[in-house]
Write the structure tokens for this entry.
Amino acid sequence: MSPKILVPVEVWMNSLAPFCRLSVVASCLFISALLLISGCVPDANAEIISPGLGAKLVIARSAGEVEIVPTAVPPKLAELTPDQVFAGLPADVRQTVEGADTGAASTIALKYACVGCHAIDPNEVKTGPTWHNAGDTAVVRVPGESPAQYLYTSITNPTDHLVEGYPPNIMPQTFATTMTPEELGTMVAYLLQQNGQ
């Protein structure tokens, strides 16, 4: 008979320890996964994020009494009558603007260095506001003031109408006296032509 080798209990328990640890860790991971999965079960009655969710939530919270007001679309220069475009301008200035040769505007803009601060390209950022779509912008820039009057005043008294985001006192305050009436009329006419873009 061969002698029996007795393994002390401590040695035997220590040899099983890695298996016990592994089973404990596996059990913990399994339970965690079950809890995570059961917590992520979607609620069929819950609102799902969607493009219309905001409106649905507003209606739900207000007991269905919501008045939806459409966003006002500002008028365009092309929709105005000539009297609306030129309202407020002195008769001689209006006559000069209406009879202006806008082909000379680029020469005038270079002569008075306007192009150093203003650009027609809306993506070109300069010190002054863009001239892109200036005619349509002038329609709504100052409530109660015609587009031509706004542009004329912006050139002759630039501090009267500061466009938000642009520094004050950059534009010369002298154009009312240094530019001829024809040059002023040409620039206003040219800027009015920048519309519908």
The radius of gyration is 38 Å. The chain is about 50% helix and 0% strand. Residues 7-41 form one domain.
